[in-house]
Amino acid sequence: MKIKSIRQVKNLKGKRVLVRVDFNVSIGKNMKVGSDEDYRLVRSLPTIKYLIRKGAKVILMAHLGRPDGKEVDKLRLDPVAIRLSQLLGKCVYKSDKIFTNFVNELKNGDVLLLENIRFDAREEKGGKAFARELAKMADIYVNDAFAVSHRAHASVATIQEYLPSYAGLLMEDEIKNLSKAIENPKKPLTVIIGGAKISTKIKVIERFLAVANNVLLGGALANTVLNVMGVSVGKSLVEPKMYPVIKKIKLTDNKLRVPVDGLMAKSFTAKKGRMDALADVKKDELILDIGPDTINLYEKIIKSSKMIVWNGPMGLIETPFFAQGTEALVKLLAQSKAYTVDGGGESVQVIRSLGLEDKFNFISTGGGAMLEFLEGKKLPGLKKIVS
Ligand code: ADP
Ligand code: MG
Fold it and tell me: Are residues 208 and 327 in the same domain?
């Protein structure tokens, strides 16, 4: 994959550079960016600092939450601008509108954050006129928002038709690291997929069954597969509409591993559960985590792998008792000598809660975007910057 990087642009001095970033953090009741959400801003710092150093006029575009095309006061980006100023050690200007003439008053090295781009309904529709208007504010466009690059939104994709477009440094990192899993991966390659719904991850599972050495499943999505395999899963979450699709997979393939034991309880709100083999789930029980035999089985495979891609928790991580399986997995991956890549909102949350981010070779900022990239899809937000 060839990446058009912002580093290839020779003279950025005085240029107005419009950068799409992913600042979709949660804002606390105190109207501050949650301290455990900082990392999303931190990941964008290299690109912003690079542009400042080169004397560019930096104009940032970002979205926050789902305002559905309307101005929503709670979703204004002011708290983000404040936190970003602190992280950069430099004043970040914030405009109350998406469009502002202030872009023409910026001095070299200044940073301006535009208002929540999703306040305009044309953003999510990928509107051409809207993208053209945005493009008028700048000389160069940079996409550094990998996490939204699977969306054909105006500030992510359409705008690339109207400005010379480049990848930011985070974007470059994302593409380089995730490409390692699909272009000449180190073998044995193991892919671990967990999480809520098999429907959102079936394509990745299918793709890696063709190219990886091992595909290990966990979480609620494994229940649907287990059920198709003939294991009764009690009241566990399953997606019956996916049965026909799963039946087409070679379920006896040695590469494909499913949990053999788990923690079960009678309701999602249970604080504790009982451990048993998955052959013995009772009718009124839910499978809420993987068990020690599964972890042992997966441990052996992890230890023999040279590259591991992981997405999605192994259990109901919101309840500490059912987060044990996922935590055990994170610890195994952290110790592993393999090249480890992880992504996905909830998976990353568990790594961070254990303070083990540094033990992974790469943590993607993308959830859905990472999965679609790994499926081999061409992401709309990479249209003009990757070939
Ligand atoms: P990620 O964001 O890491 O890609 P997903 O969004 O696909 O992960 O799934 C995360 C959710 O899956 C978590 O909220 C977790 O509680 C849920 N989950 C995982 N395993 C189970 C299970 N066995 N039963 C119910 N929910 C589960
Ligand atoms: Mg998620």
Answer: yes
Last residue of a domain, one of 138, 171, 204: 171
Q: Whose CA is nearest to atom 5 of ligand 1?
A: 195
Ligand 2 centroid distance, CA of 374 (Å): 16
Between CA 7 and CA 29 the distance in angstroms is: 39
Q: Count structural domains, the chain.
A: 2
Helix intervals (H) in 197-280 = 202-211, 219-228, 243-247
Regarding whether 304 and 217 lie in a shared domain, the answer is: yes
- One-letter amino acid at 14 equals G
Rounded to the nearest 10°, the torsion over CA 286, 290, 293, 299 is 170
Angle between helices 169-182 and 38-53 (to 10 degrees): 120
Residue 293: what pLDDT? 98
- CATH number of the domain that 158 lies in? 3.40.50.1260
Residue numbers of the chain with a pLDDT score lower than 50: none
Q: Which structural domain, as residue segments, surrounds residue 326? A: 185-375
Pocket of ligand 1 (CB under 6 A): 195-196, 219-220, 237, 287-288, 311-313, 315-318, 344-347, 367
Ligand nearest to the CA of 343: 1
pLDDT of residue 375: 92
